[in-house]
Amino acid sequence: MKNTLKVASLGALAIFLTACNTVEGVGKDVEAGGEVIQDTSNDVEEDIKD
């Protein structure tokens, strides 16, 4: 019974750690998308001023 609990706990930990990496990756993707929008906005602003 103890071995089953250990295996289940390790499995849950592995899933949790994988989920953290996935959420971190999504955060980086969203941040990169925001930077592209900000850069484009700055380019348009500069074009309007010229």
Automatic annotation (TrEMBL):
Keyword annotations: Cell membrane, Lipoprotein, Membrane, Palmitate, Signal
GO cellular component: membrane
GO biological process: response to toxic substance
One protein family per Pfam: Entericidin
Similarity comment: Belongs to the EcnA/EcnB lipoprotein family.
Protein known as: Entericidin
